[in-house]
């Protein structure tokens, strides 16, 4: 049994889901990465989240991945998302090299400040889902199903997600501002993002980010966007004598 499997069980994933995701990472995804010279060895051996983000981006560009992921109801992309989450938030001390590391200090705001903000994000997601499902306007709009049984369950999950992220953006690490903050910056307010934009609003595929980060990311692959943000961070890191764009 891998640490990845144990972590998923601790997070409450069903046994069948644990087996599917672990099997996808150790089986087909590793095989495709090895065969196409993207990585040598088992993907489960990767411990650095930034390295895995680059690997995941390359894997998702493979024709065989795109074909099998579509026929498999996005199971392979969901497995990549879950393993990336494990590397970012799992037990390994070496697994926290998020592009802009999420702060480990407590949130700057009281826990009860996030309930109205979480509910607002949930209502926005539900409106998005209702507008997208079954609608065809010049092009096919992505199916954005909501996998939560109720609005309350969805809101509790999102509120817990903010707490898990210590009140910080999952991608930039910047402090997120609740809706109740007076004279706050609208661009720093919380925004609910699907890690895999082709996936659903469901546990394991959601993260809370700053509003401007969500807008910048758009429909880009999460691993690709995190990689680019890390490139930007390294470019502007202290100590560089000259920075040009």
Annotate the secondary structure layout.
Blueprint (H helix, E strand, L loop, with lengths): L2 H8 L4 H21 L13 H12 L2 H9 L3 H15 L25 H18 L3 E2 L1 E2 L10 H14 L25 E5 L11 E5 H7 L4 H14 L10
Antiparallel strand pairs: 1-2, 3-4
Description:
The chain is mostly helical and 245 residues long. The protein folds into two domains: 3-95, no CATH class; 111-220, no CATH class. It has nine helices and four strands. The protein has helices at residues 3-10, 15-35, 49-60, 63-71, 75-89, 115-132, 151-164, 211-217, 222-235; strands at 136-137, 139-140, 190-194, 206-210. It has a two-stranded antiparallel sheet. A two-stranded antiparallel sheet has the order 3-4. Strand 1 and strand 2 (139-140) form a beta hairpin. The chain is globular and about 55 Å long. Mean pLDDT is 80; it is low at 92-106 and 136-143.
Summary keywords:
2 domains; globular; mainly alpha; two-stranded antiparallel sheet; single chain; 4 strands; 245 residues; two-stranded antiparallel ribbon
């Amino acid at each position: 049994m891998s640490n990845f499997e144990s972590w998923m069980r601790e997070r409450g994933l069903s046994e069948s889901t644990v087996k599917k995701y672990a099997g996808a990472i150790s089986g087909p995804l590793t095989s495709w990465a090895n065969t196409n010279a993207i990585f040598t060895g088992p993907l489960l051996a990767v411990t650095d989240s930034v390295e895995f983000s680059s690997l995941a981006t390359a894997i998702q560009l493979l024709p065989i991945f795109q074909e099998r992921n579509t026929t498999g109801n996005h199971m392979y992309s969901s497995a990549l998302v879950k393993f990336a989450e494990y590397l970012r938030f799992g037990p390994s001390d070496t697994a926290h090299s998020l592009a802009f590391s999420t702060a480990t200090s407590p949130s700057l705001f009281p826990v009860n400040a996030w309930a109205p903000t979480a509910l607002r994000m949930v209502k926005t997601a539900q409106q998005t889902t209702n507008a997208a499902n079954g609608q065809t306007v010049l092009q096919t709009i992505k199916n954005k199903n909501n996998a939560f049984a109720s609005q309350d369950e969805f809101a509790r999950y999102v509120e817990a997600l903010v707490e898990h992220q210590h009140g910080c953006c999952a991608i930039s690490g910047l402090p997120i501002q609740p809706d109740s903050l007076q004279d706050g910056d609208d661009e720093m307010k919380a925004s609910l993002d699907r890690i895999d934009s082709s996936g659903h609003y469901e546990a394991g595929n959601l993260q809370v980010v700053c509003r401007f980060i969500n807008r910048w990311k758009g429909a880009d692959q999460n691993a690709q966007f995190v990689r680019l943000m890390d490139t930007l961070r390294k470019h502007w890191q202290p100590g560089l004598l000259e920075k040009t764009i």
